[in-house]
Structure formats: C-alpha cells, structure tokens
Amino acid sequence: MDFKNNSPQPHMSSTLAPQEEVALAAANWVKMGFPVEVRRNGLPTVDPRSPEQRKDPVATYFILCEISGLGLAVKTGPKTGLLAITASTSDENSGLNALRNAGFYCPQCDSPIRYDAIMDGKFEGGFHTMLYYVGKETFLRTALSELDGVVVEGSGEVITIPPGICDYGLALGVSTKATYEGPETLAPVGIPYLPDGLRKMIRAAERQTLADKRKPNSRRGVLPELYAPVAEGGRNNALARRAGFLLGVRKLTEEQTLKALLDINQRCCQPPLDICDVQSVVRSIAKRHQRHG
Description:
Layout: E1 2-4, H1 18-31, E2 37-40, E3 43-44, H2 57-64, E4 71-75, E5 82-87, H3 96-101, E6 113-119, E7 122-133, E8 142-143, E9 150-152, E10 158-161, E11 164-167, E12 174-180, E13 190-192, H4 196-213, H5 235-248, H6 254-268, H7 275-292
Antiparallel strand pairs: 1-13, 2-3, 2-4, 4-10, 5-7, 5-9, 6-7, 6-12, 8-9, 11-12
Helix pairs in contact: 1-2, 5-6, 5-7, 6-7
C-alpha cells in the first residue's frame, strides 16, 4: 500500500524557473501530509513560511515560488513516519540490484532518489535513497550484511529531496544533483509502506549491531588508516579523525583536505556521506585547528 497523491503529478519542464520546480515539489509533499524543510546548498536556512503555512500546499507553493536558490529536505523518524534506506550500486548484486533481487525494489514501480556527485564538471559517483512509511517506529543506522551496499539510515536523518543542485563552494567545482530515478518528475506518486520481509531483515541486523557494540574493542581511540573501510555507523567520527590527521599531521590546507576527504568518503564509507556533510566535517575540524594553532 502507498500513501498516494491523487492530484496530477508535476513534471519537470524547461519553461519552469528552478524556484517554481522547488515550490511545486514542496507543495506536493505538503499535500501528501509530509512537512518539508527548506535548505540552501544543502544547509539549514530561514524558512519564510509560518507554522500554519507549512501545512498549506497552496501557501507553500506561492511563498517558495518567490525565492530563488532554495532546496528541500524531509526528516526521518516518528514525526514524519519516514525511514530512509541508502543503496550504493557497484555491480549486479549490490545496492538497488540487491534490493531488486530480494524483491524489495521494482524499477517500474518505485522512484528512489538519485544523488550524483560532480567535481570539476565530471561525474564522480553517486547513490540512491529509498523512502518508506513506517509510522511511529524508530530505527538504528544499520548496514544490511545480506544486501551488499544497502544501509538503513537511523531515525532523525535529514534527507535532501529533488529537485535541485547543491554547490558547495570553496572554488572546487563540487556539487550534487538530486533527481528521481526513472520518469522525470518533481515529486513521487506516493510513499510505500516498508515491506514486512525487509523490516524483519532490518530488525535482525539491528540486534546483531547492538551485540557487536557490546564486545570489547581494543582498537578504540586509535587513528584508523586513511583508507580503512567504514562499513557501519560512525562515518562522521571516522572522517573527522582523518580530517584532523590531514590538517594537523600532513599540514594540508582546508581545500586540499576537502578534496582528499571527498575521495576517502567515496572509497571507504558505505554508503558515502552527502558532500555537504563532508564539507561540514572539514570546516569544523579546520576551525578547531585554527583556534588551537
């Protein structure tokens, strides 16, 4: 069963200004009953809508239509009832293909969000995020060992939704583009319920993750190798420690560190963090080094 939006679906059009596309997409999500957050280049910004207007699709459309440069996001967890699952597809048995092979993804029926990373005008990889409705249930961030390249995002994650391109500055030419896989559309037809089989798989993986965390870890507190894999949880902490090493030991500049950490993120994190999150890590660690010399 899906949470359907029975109104005609807005499609991308070359005649629409970028802010009109964002406004149409936001209005559609609000009409489905899901609150949307406004962002600028992937980061929080002032929402021009009042609390009441945020519940009104018509008001949302007309207000956001007047402001350029905005992007959109939704938050997972009990307040929205959403769960996000990220898929990094590298071969026929990973990511979306692993979900499809297990019967949890239909290319003809589902519209996962596609994120493409672009650096200096070149495609540098990407991943997909699927959103499910789970009501008041909460979930831990968990890698699914049975499905290669598939990670359940913990409740409370902020998920960027299309349309939009985030430019991360620092004169690096780094950006990400968010679209829906499949037909060109500005909003999904509906949000599916989480399949029972996938829910059981996730809960089993959570139990294993909690059991593993209770085991003693003799390597805790030791700086990991730069390119050691980060298979589950702790992506932000792992990248922060590596950023500190690059800035403090290797004496790289902030710009050089960001380039290196973006590469490490793509190679080591499953799935990779959003580029704006990597940028935030580097900026935060660089500020600490500046304060402490």
